[in-house]
Design brief:
It is a single chain. It contains four helices and no strands. The chain is mainly alpha-helical. It has a domain of about 50 residues. Keywords: Coiled coil. Pfam families: DUF465.
Length: about 80
């Protein structure tokens, strides 16, 4: 697996201003961003073999990151 961090800037290019605006106006969205960053860091550490985790746990982290990314994308779409 790739050990490239999936930062929100990379995942949503050109959306920095909207992400910042929504983060300051919506506490639920801000919590999603915080949770994404925590899980994304855990995935990166597992993929880089900094932290030793089972394949199942690593896959679960990836699924969780994907779920959070989908929720962030949905929130961004809702503010168009």
């Amino acid at each position: 697996m790739s050990n490239t961090p999936h930062t929100l800037k990379d995942e949503f290019p050109g959306e920095e201003a909207r992400i910042t605006a929504l983060k300051t106006s919506d506490s639920r969205f801000a919590s999603l961003l915080e949770e994404y960053d925590v899980v994304n860091d855990q995935v990166h550490r597992a993929e880089s073999r900094i932290d030793t985790v089972s394949e199942e746990h690593e896959e679960g982290l990836r699924r969780n990151r994907s779920r959070l990314k989908d929720q962030i994308a949905a929130a961004l779409r809702a503010t168009v």
